[in-house]
Amino acid sequence: MRLRTLAFAWVLLVASAAAGADLRRVEATGTVPVGTASAKSTPRNVAVRAAVARAVESVALDLGANVPKPAANPSGPTKPPNPAAISPELAKALGEDPLDYATRYRILEDKGARAVRAPQPGGPEKEYVVVVEVQVDAARVSERLRAAGWLAAASDGSSGATTELVLEGLNDYRALASVRRLLVEKLGARRVLPVEFRRGEAVLSVEGGPPPDSLAAALQAAAPPELRLVPVESGETGVTLVVEWTPPPPAPVEPAADSVETD
User: Quick one: 27 and 74 in the same domain?
Assistant: First the structure.
């Protein structure tokens, strides 16, 4: 039954990849000075939008080393950037509206208005804070970053050979999805296709990306904390890894967030 579930999950993953779908859940905090809301938006809604913007920025920075980082403490004669918009550094490629890249979001914690911890002379004394879980369309973010020249094409610097990748100890489709995402998005593989599913094991055909002698190390370096990969065997055309997956703790269930009004 588990084998059939993994196989079905892979079919869904391949279908999503063909459609260009790559949705990532990100937890972000939105903080805005009280007084930035307009007649159409409450401070809470503006803070939610700010959280969505921070989530989009986080995904963009995770996609490539050449993506410029938002300024931590903007200064100078110009007015400070809009906290509810994508940072000016990234807006050159992504535009300012973070809702262009969020397929859904929900408030995890509404901290409300609080005193600014280090108020500046003449600045606001209160700020509104929310913590939001955002589902970001990373494929669309990648497309914009690539068009701006900040993200290399998937085939740049990758080999044209095909490597057989064997994953052992596989018992969760999320581990399979995570490995595929690393190969395609971070390691430059053009295609990752299933060859065979056995009990607790999957055999994948990886086209492009790092050569076999460096594939295991590249995957280990790029893997998220919940995914542990242990090399077992590496040859001229194939690599075998043991997969250990520790699911991240689930987010607390809260009522759905109110929709954010746009100006």
Answer: yes
CB atoms within 10 A of CB 52: 27
Q: Do 184 and 207 touch, CB atoms closer than 8 A? A: no
What CATH number does residue 95 fall under?
A: 3.10.129
What 8-state DSSP symbol labels residue 98? G
Structural domain for 84, as ranges = 23-147
Instruction: Give pTM, 2 decimals.
Output: 0.56
Nearest-5° Cα angle at 228, 159 to 230: 70
Instruction: Identify the segments of the chain with pLDDT beneath 70.
Output: 1-21, 36-39, 73-79, 152-160, 250-263
Cα–Cα separations (whole angstroms), residue 1 to 7, 14, 170, 198, 199:
10, 20, 14, 11, 10
What is the tally of structural domains in the chain?
2
Cα gap 98→250, rounded to integer Å: 24
Two tokens, residue 12: 């869904």
Q: Please state, in angstroms and rounded to a whole number, the distance separating the CA atoms of residues 165 and 205.
A: 6
| Separation between Cα atoms, residue 94 and residue 55, nearest integer Å | 13
Residues 33 and 54 in one domain: yes
Neighbour tally for 8: CB within 10 Å: 11
Q: What separation in angstroms does the CA of 94 have from each of 82, 106, 131, 144?
A: 15, 22, 23, 6
Tell me the per-residue pLDDT of 66-98, one tens digit each, with 9 for 90 and over. 889 988 765 554 567 899 999 999 999 999 999
Q: How many CB atoms lie within 10 A of CB 149?
A: 9
Q: If residue 220 lies in a helix (H) or strand (E), which one and from where to where?
A: helix 212-222
Residue 12, domain member (yes or no): no
Cα 241 to the center of its chain, rounded Å: 24
* 169: CATH: 3.30.70
Interatomic CA distance for residues 87 and 57, integer angstroms:
8
